[in-house]
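User: Structure tokens for this complex, please. No commentary.
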Amino acid sequence: EVQLVESGGGLVQPGRSLRLSCAASGLAFDNYAMHWVRQAPGKGLEWVSGISWNSGNIGYADSVKGRFTISRDNARNSLYLQLHSLRAEDTALYYCATQDYWGQGTLVTVSS
Amino acid sequence: DIQMTQSPSSLSASVGDRVTITCRASPGIRSDLSWYQQKPGKAPKRLIYAASTLQSGVPSRFSGSGSGTEFTLTISSLQPEDFATYYCLQHNSYPYTFGQGTKLEIK
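Assistant:
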């Protein structure tokens, strides 16, 4: 059974940083491009960032470019998202996903 | 960047109805489009990939069509469990983009 388990969310003040992690199991992790997708409360889905299997191709949404950094460790079957300069509008449930498999999300709340 | 325009934003229908949701891409994205269903409090579930290929385990009442700039998701005969929010996703090039979503409600 494929499992993607996100962690690292929480309450953080504006301007601060946070690191999200996603632990993958039940799939050949190094065969998959991986993504972070977020959903603000009561809003739609927003693709945040993606990374190819070998980290050779990386992309970001315009809303997070320059503030967020995606990375992966294939030896640890793990995906990461480093969030800097957080804003209130970054408040959302952050999902780790392949295009087919999704985690249950980790909630990031940016508030003073 | 590729812009995705999804319509309608909401739709009221009855069990047994046929419904169609549309996504338009600008510029074109070949067939690099997926459709997702999301129910409240749950992660999205992929229904269709490559514009028209049914995900394994998804009922055959769901179908997708289109290529280039216009895509449709059709549910041929609505079932009670189909009332949810639907999103398209273009994965032709970074940054990927979702449509705005279509909330399908019971009439």
